[in-house]
Write a structure and sequence with these properties.
Helix content: 55-70%
Number of domains: 2
CATH class of the largest domain: Alpha Beta
Strand content: 5-15%
Radius of gyration: 25 Å
Strand order of the largest sheet: 1-2
CATH architecture of the largest domain: 3-Layer(aba) Sandwich
Order of helices and strands: HHHEEHH
Length: about 150
Amino acid sequence: MDKERIRQQKNAWAKKKYHENIEASRAKVREANRLSKRRWRDANPGLSGERSWKFTLKKFGMTIEDYNRILFLQCGVCAICKRVETATTKDGIIRRLNIDHDNATGRVRGLLCRACNVGIGQLKHELGILGSAIMYLERAPYEYGTL
């Protein structure tokens, strides 16, 4: 009986140490990757954003000309709020408008500012939820009295 209990304790200890070591190892790898990416970005200023921009265009099957055409048709503003983008990068550069697309079909719908893109994303791109949000905002304020 004691031998069995000791064996179980040893197994539990070994499992715990194994998982601790795995997590520590993964944390070290994540940190090394983060530092490596930071060094590359520091050594190649401007290229990191340009590479991700080209990847984004490719993901949606667009060219820079396609993006600029949509931007021109939208008069350089967000398709929802009709305002220019105000969000900035870490470097203080104004961001491009986000490419909005239908998740079901992958088709591009238009260009949105960061705030509008995040807003419809938080509402799950569902017309029912968006409609409920509109009704909520339109109803009389303080419907429940002063709380």
